Amino acid sequence: MIRAEAISKSFGKLNVLRNVSVRLDAGRVVAVIGPNGSGKTTFIKTLLGMVVPDSGTVLFDNQLIEKQHTYRSQIGYMPQIGHYPANLKIRQLFEMMVDVRKNAATQLDEDLVEAFHLKGLFEKPLGTLSGGTKQKVSAALAFLFNPSVLILDEPTAGLDPLSSEILKEKIQKEHQNGKLILITSHVMSDLDELATDVLYLQDGSVQFYKTITELKLETGENKLGRVVAQLMSQPRKSHQNIKTLEFSSLQI
Ligand code: ADP
Ligand code: MG
Question: Which of 106, 114, 171, 201 has its CB 3.0 to 4.6 Å from that of 38, i.e. a possible disulfide?
Answer without folding.
Answer: 201
